[in-house]
Amino acid sequence: MRWSQAVKMTGIALIGSLVLAACGNTGATETTPGSNGGNAGATETPPAKTDVIAVSEVYHNLLYLPLYVAKDQGFLEENNIEVSTITAAGSGPAALASVLSGESTFSFHGPEHVSFAKAKGGEAKSISILSGSAPVWAVAHEGTTIETPQDFVGKTIVTGIAPTSSNSLLRKLFADNGIDLDKDVTITEVQNGSELGTLLAGKADIAVVYEPQLDQGLVQGLQIVYDFTKDYPDFAFATLNTSDKVIKEQPDLVRRMVKSLEAALDYIHADPEGTKEIAKKEFPNLEAEVVENAVQRMIDSNVYPQDGTLTESAFQAAIDMQRFIGNLDKDVSYADMVDASFMP
Q1: pLDDT tens per residue, range 311-330
Q2: How many angstroms separate the CA atoms of 343 and 232, rounded?
Q3: Nearest 10 degrees: CA dihedral of 21, 24, 27, 30?
Q4: 3-state class of 176 per DSSP?
Q5: Is residue 248 over pLDDT 80?
Q6: Are 208 and 157 in contact (CB under 8 A)?
Q7: What H or E segment, with its residue span, contains residue 72?
Q8: Averaged over 206-220, what is the pLDDT?
Q9: Can you list the pairs that 201-204 forms with residues at least 24 positions away whose Cβ atoms lie under 8 Å?
Q10: Nearest to 104 by CA among 52, 56, 50
């Protein structure tokens, strides 16, 4: 693993209490005189100060499981970080806005939102990947066969409201394969999370979904008919993001956060069963079987990468998708949007 445990002091009585930092503040560490056998002036370094931070995510989801693993397994604590609050912001722009305002230190969403913010004067960077690939699947009742994109022709497909990634991936698949959205297929857009209900009610032939919806459908007898992770194995789907201000003023905090998440990714791949137990605790309202199957599928599909490095190719795949759907009218530079220098 690419992480190490913080050094623990022994043999010294701590004087006073450890001062918890305000959100994102990493003040300097002081040294405390020690007895050292009575030698006056001898000093020893006390434990490093813990940074207490708030983070924001789009919504509480298995895509951010490395964060929850890092918290549960003590990787954040080992790196002197305490996450006091995880806020579900409801959207990528809202999550990043929380960081730019200083309310949160880090946000979790796609790197495209850094590009959107920069176009409006917001200064931020994407740092590393929590979930890669394109974790989207199409499901249908047994008997439906999709062997090539042309097999979607004539079908009614339900997906989340644009510009959610499931919607964008479906439309790009059709565009790349000459399928006319107006003549060849019928796309029904519904509120994210309600796609399965539309399919099960008989109002669509195919539903395009994320996890855990996918495995919720499978336990009800549905089957996977298309796997977008195979089309986009190198795709920056959810990233760790922060402001230029935090990078400039608290680089060591950023480095320790990345180190904690890397340790979590290592743990996910080294101990899938332990990871499933953490996920079940994090999502107690979901059936255990659904959580276990969803986590295993995302491990097998490399949605949780073994290395969180945000590569230029993965970043570009995400940006190209945004250009395709019209959210970006010009290309953006990897160097301007990404700071991968904090990787261990």
Answers
A1: 999 999 999 999 999 988 87
A2: 23
A3: 50
A4: helix
A5: yes
A6: yes
A7: helix 65-72
A8: 97
A9: 203/156, 203/158, 204/156, 204/157, 204/158
A10: 56
DSSP letter at 336? H
* Edge-to-edge order in the sheet of strand 238-243: 81-88, 51-57, 106-109, 238-243, 124-131
- Judge whether 110 and 238 are in contact, CB under 8 Å: yes
* Structure tokens, 269: 């791949």
Distance CA 62, CA 282 (A): 9
Of 134, 133, 130, the C-alpha closest to 265 is 130
SS3 20: coil
Q: How confident is the model at residue 33 (pLDDT cuts 50, 70, 90)?
A: very low
Q: How sure is the predictor about 241, in pLDDT bands with cuts at 50, 70 and 90?
A: very high
Q: What is the pLDDT of residues 137-158, one digit of tens each?
A: 999 999 999 999 999 999 999 9
Q: Which pair of tokens denotes residue 165?
A: 């990634």
Q: What are phi and psi of 305, to 5 degrees?
A: -70, 155
Between CA 21 and CA 314 the distance in angstroms is 35
User: What does the block give as tokens for 99?
Assistant: 């960081």
202 vs 224: CA distance, rounded Å? 17
Place of tokens 């230190």: 105
- For 29-146, where are the alpha helices, taking DSSP H only? 65-72, 75-78, 92-100, 112-119
Which amino acid is present at 44?
E
Q: CA-to-CA distance for 65 and 68, rounded, in angstroms?
A: 5
Q: Hey, what are 251's tokens?
A: 């680089």
In this predicted structure, the answer to whether residue 37 has a pLDDT above a threshold of 60 is: no
CA pair distance 89, 92, nearest whole angstrom:
8
The identity of residue 162, as a single letter, is A
* Nearest CA-CA partner of 188 in 158, 154, 153, 152: 158
pLDDT at 44: 60
pLDDT surpassing 70 at residue 77: yes
- Supply 154's token pair: 């004539």
**Alpha helical stretches, state H, the chain:** 65-72, 75-78, 92-100, 112-119, 165-176, 195-200, 213-218, 228-231, 244-249, 251-270, 272-282, 288-300, 312-324, 334-337
**DSSP secondary structure string, 281-319?**
HH-TTS-HHHHHHHHHHHHHTTSS-SS-B--HHHHHHHH
Which two structure tokens, joined as six digits, stand for 28? 């300097």
Amino acid at 286: L
